[in-house]
Structures are given as C-alpha cells and as structure tokens.
Specification:
The complex is a heterodimer of chains A (265) and B (228). With 265 residues, chain A is mostly helical. Helices cover 71% and strands 0% of the residues of chain A. Chain A has two domains: 140 residues, no CATH class; 94 residues, no CATH class. Chain A contains ten helices and no strands. The longest helix of chain A is centred in the last third of the chain and has 39 residues. The radius of gyration of chain A is 26 Å and the shape is elongated. The chains are: A mainly alpha (265), B alpha+beta (228). Chain B: This is Uroplakin 3A.
C-alpha cells in the first residue's frame, strides 16, 4: 500500500474509533438519564399509570437498555475497527442496526406520548379517583388498591409540598362533582384540607379562613405545572437526546459499513 | 325613609330600607359562592337610621329566586298599616322545604358595630382573622349536620342546593318584633356541580417536535436497513 493511502486508512480508522467512543459515552449518559427518570423522584408514576398513558416510562426503560447496549457495542466496535477483521465488523454492524431500531422506537414513543399530558387529563383523573374509597363488599385487586391509595397520597403530597390546590385551582372542586365531594360535604370541605396553609409542624393555620376561602390561608395556585413539568422534561429528554445519539450513530455506522466494503477479506 | 323622620308616628312601623344584601366582593373571596354556601357581607351601618339597641338581632332569610318575590308579613299590626305582606317570619328550613315554598330563617347574628368596622388588613394577622371574618361576613349554608336532626330546630343554616339561584334578606328584629328590613338581594347563583365525564381530554394540536423526531428517525432507520 502507498504511504499516503495508508495514512488515509489510518485516519479513517481513528475517526471511526473516535466515533464509537462518543457513542459509548452517549450510551452511558442515556442509561444514566433513563435511570433518573425511572426512579421517579416526584412520585408521579401512579398518576400517569392510572390514566393508561404510561408509555413514557416504557420509552425510558427501552432507553436504559439501549443505552447500555450502545455502550457495549461501541466498545466492541472500537476493537473491531482497530483489528480490521471483516467478521467482527459484520457482527458490529448487525448489532448496531438492531439497537438502532429499538432506540428509534423509544425516542418516537417518548416524543409522541408526552403530548398526552394536558391539564384536563389529570383533572378528570383527580376528580374520579382522589379520595375514592375501596368497595366495602367486593375484594379489590392489587391494581385498584395501588391506584386509589396512590393517587390520593400523591395528590396530598403534591398539594402540601408545592402549596397548590387542584389542577387549575380550588375551583376544580367547585365546578365538578367528584369522589371527594361524595365523601365530604361542600359546606364543611369545599376543597381538601391539604389546600389550606399549614405551619411548620403540619397543622393548619386557620381552618375557618381556609373554608371561607380567604387568600393566604387557601392555596389558589393550580398544581398542573408541578406535575406536567417533570413529565414533559422526561419526554423531551428521552426523545431528543435519543434523537441526537441516533443521528451521530447513523453516520458512524455508515462509515463502518463503507470501511467494511473497502476491506479485502 | 326621610319622610318617616318627620312623622314621629312611624317609629313603630316596619322600616323597609332600600339596600340589598350582597355577596362578599370577589376581590376578597375569589371562590364565593361555592356549591352549597354563599358568604354575604354583614349589613354594616345599614340599620343606623333606625337606632338599633344592643339586644336587637339581625335575621337572614333565604328563598329560591324562582319562588317569586315575597313581602314581609309582620306579626305586630297594632299601630301600623303595612302593605301586601305574604311571608311569615320564623319558618325553618324543613318547614319551607329548603326555601322553595316560602322564605326560611337561616341564621341570626348581633348588630354589626358601626363605630369600629372590621379592618381588611386584619385578615393577614392570624390572631385577629377569626374575629374579623365574623364581623365582616356571614356564611349561609355552613351547617351540614342540622338538616338531619329530628328535633325541630329554631333555625338551621343548612347547605344550599347547587346550581340554584337564591335571594337573601336581612331583618332587624327585637325578640319576635320586626323593626326593619332590607330589600331582597339580587339573585345569587350557587355553583353547579358538573359531572367529570364531561371533561374533554383531547390533546388538541400535536407538538411539532414529535413529528420531526418521528419522520427523521424513521427515515434514518430505513436508510440504514437499505444500506445493509
């Protein structure tokens, strides 16, 4: 081989190896980000699960495994490129295409399903499930117990921690009938006690003022931003970071395919 | 009622004051009325022309707007001639079927102090808020428990029906004698409780980003499979 083309080949090899290194790092980052989302620090999973639209979590799980797979395959790819063996390169290409397809699925799922989180979705679910009692006579499935108690405790936690009430505000409880309304009279509980201003020890500052609806003693802000914010960020993260990784991976795999075709067997 | 100041024989008459009870201003209470309660502003300095004494009380009467406009039927007709009176005082919530037939007496409170009216700034002071709220407003519909009690109550401030319009009237009474009355308030509508099934959860427009990601990634995947 001529010295010049030898340098050219070496450069190309180095470029492919570096490309795979970047893929490996990105794969690790994707895995870490998906672990963070799945961990669900804000305890929002039960709210999303009850709506039936928890595909964002499935996208995060796929992202976790593809991230790890990308890392492993990219390291293998670096080795294969530097060894320049046709067999290894073929294995690498096939694995990469396989992982690529899965990651495409994850990114598209996350991108399309985050559109579902409109305020009315959470409003309807809150009115139908918050404070819903389990049926007295029939046994409840684990699923029902999980949903009922999870939604009630999650909403209580959100309203207390973020000092908000309902999805749009306390008027949610006034405009609609709800499970909460079935259990509690409007005179005594126009809205849940969690919407009332609390002091440091968790006691309500003034129940009467909260019932009447005087402003600092009742939280008038809606909780939608605190619910949708983390969920939409999760959707954005999984979809757009996945998209960026796939664009890069596409060019690296095309480069390796080209290199494969140029190699003598 | 300027003409009655001139004629002293009108002291015993039922004074009909041309003021109307009002719901508390939305600037103070954003969520008033609720499904079954209405917070009314107490009549501050309204009855002063009648020179009320401390033992007099103010009664609040409630009626459904659609039942028609009622005039007061006074129990003391000895020295005054009073025009068309059609409702009796002292009816309870149960007797009037929740105010659908004739007005019922919901609650009663002492004369508000006109010389030192409640200060809205006191509402942010936790120690003074209960007193300030009590002096400033009266909450109709605040007692959900007295409705089911079997013994006949003197009066029951029962919860109102949702999605119904009501009118309110203040009566200045001394024992059972009516001294003065306000006009019937404007029609106040309680909130209607809609069913959550009516909530539309349609997502509206799809975000552009989702479409971009879908199209480009599908394209890349097909190119990759084609090249392989």
């Amino acid at each position: 081989m001529v010295a010049k083309s030898d340098i050219g080949v070496r450069c190309f090899q180095a470029f492919l190896a570096w490309g795979n290194f970047v893929i490996a790092c990105c794969g690790l980052a994707l895995m870490a980000m998906c672990i963070f989302f799945i961990f669900d620090r804000d305890h929002l999973y039960v709210l999303v699960y009850a709506t039936g639209n928890d595909s964002i979590w499935r996208a995060a799980w796929i992202g976790l495994f593809t991230g790890f797979a990308l890392f492993c395959t990219a390291v293998f790819g670096m080795y294969a490129v530097l060894k320049s063996k046709r067999g290894l390169l073929l294995v690498y290409i096939l694995l990469m295409i396989f992982i690529f397809a899965f990651e495409v699925a994850s990114a598209i799922t996350a991108a399309t399903h985050k559109d579902w989180f409109v305020p009315n979705l959470f409003l309807k679910q809150m009115l139908e499930n918050y404070n819903k009692p389990l049926p007295q006579n029939l046994p409840s499935t684990q699923d029902e117990i999980y949903k009922n108690s999870g939604i009630t405790s999650t909403w209580n936690m959100i309203m207390t921690e973020y000092q908000c009430c309902g999805v749009y505000g306390p008027q949610d409880w006034l405009q609609y009938n709800s499970q909460f309304r079935q259990q509690n009279s409007d005179s005594e509980y126009p809205w849940p006690r969690q919407c009332c201003l609390q002091d440091g020890t968790g006691g309500i500052v003034n129940v009467n003022a909260c019932k009447i609806g005087v402003e600092p003693y009742l939280f008038t802000q809606g909780c939608y931003d605190y619910i949708a914010g983390p969920l939409i960020r999760q959707g954005l993260g999984v979809s757009w970071f996945g998209f960026a990784i796939l664009c890069w991976t596409f060019f690296v795999v095309i480069g390796v395919m080209f290199y494969y075709t140029q190699l003598d067997s | 009622a300027i003409w009655c100041i001139v004629l002293s024989s009108c002291v015993c008459c039922g004074w009909s004051l041309s003021v109307k009870p009002e719901a508390v201003s939305p600037r103070l209470l954003r969520f008033n009325p609720t499904q079954s309660t209405v917070s009314l502003a107490k009549p501050l300095c309204v009855f002063d022309s009648v020179k009320p004494t401390n033992e007099m009380m103010v009664d609040v009467y409630v009626v459904h707007s659609l039942s028609g406009t009622y005039s007061l039927k006074s129990l003391n007709l000895s020295t005054c001639v009073v025009a068309t009176l059609t409702f009796e005082t002292g009816k309870t919530y149960k007797e009037t079927n929740g105010g659908t037939e004739t007005p019922y007496k919901a609650t009663s409170f002492g004369i508000p102090n006109c010389t030192s009216p409640p200060n809205p700034a006191d509402l942010s002071v936790p120690q003074r808020i209960d007193k300030t709220l009590d002096e400033y407003l009266v909450r109709i519909g605040s007692n959900p428990t007295c409705v089911g009690e079997p013994e006949a109550e003197a009066f029951c401030n029962a919860p109102l029906s949702d999605g119904t319009s009501y009118r309110f009237k203040y009566l200045l009474v001394n024992g059972t004698t009516t001294i003065a009355e306000t006009e019937w308030s404007e029609s106040i509508l309680t909130r209607k409780a809609l069913s959550p099934d009516e909530i539309d959860t349609w997502i509206g427009k799809r975000s552009g980003g989702g479409i971009v990601v879908t199209v480009i990634l599908s394209l890349l995947l097909f190119l990759l499979l084609g090249a392989a």
